[in-house]
Design a protein that fits this description.
The chain has one helix and 15 strands. The chain is mainly β. The radius of gyration is 20 Å and the shape is flat.
């Protein structure tokens, strides 16, 4: 069991028979009452984020997830296939388990697969990925006084706001935490 004082960002806990990772943590001391802990949690399986408040005296069951380096191979309908880089076994996750992380997967990408009780539950993406622009409108010179943006659809279906100079076919580096444009890669 883990107490609220031992919680940190990145710690995974079992709450209501679900696996949750602590995204943010705030300790609140109320004048006459007891202390509270406000947690921002992300569901490991679905990616949903919630905020919950608990008494500082509550205890949580800590869960340790195994991390395995894997390579993303291909998508078949709503199933994504990965190969364990150490054992070469193939593992699969469905679209529900991946959630929005599926929009950042390009074949041959290396990432971390999170396992619980020898079952794959989620992936941990690298901080950024390189994706090709599948569709965007041409930027018109003189549209704005200072650096405007336009929408672009990436090869995986991800929609990103990009600078006006970006064209269809360009390869861009995208931040996987925020889903925003970082830099033109090639």
């Amino acid at each position: 069991m883990i107490t609220p004082g031992e919680l940190r960002r990145g710690v995974t806990i079992d709450l209501d028979e679900q696996l949750w990772t602590v995204v943010d943590y705030e300790h609140i001391k109320i004048g006459r009452g007891g202390a509270l802990v406000r947690l921002k949690l992300r569901n490991v399986r679905t990616g949903a984020t919630v905020e919950r408040t608990f008494s500082a005296s509550e205890k949580f069951r800590r869960v340790f997830l195994d991390r395995r380096p894997v390579q993303y191979l291909y998508r078949e309908d709503d199933t994504f296939h990965f190969m364990d880089s150490e054992t070469f076994n193939q593992l699969a996750l469905d679209l529900v388990q991946l959630g929005d992380d599926a929009l950042y997967l390009v074949e041959n990408t290396t990432l971390e697969l999170l396992m619980h009780d020898d079952r794959p539950v989620a992936v941990e993406l690298p901080p950024s990925v390189e994706l090709r622009v599948a569709e965007t409108e041409p930027g018109v010179r003189g549209d704005t006084a200072s650096g405007g943006t336009k929408p672009a659809v990436m090869e995986t279906g991800l929609k990103v706001q990009v600078p006006l100079f970006v064209n269809t076919g360009d390869v861009l580096r995208i931040d996987t935490r925020t889903g925003s444009y970082l830099v033109r890669a090639k």
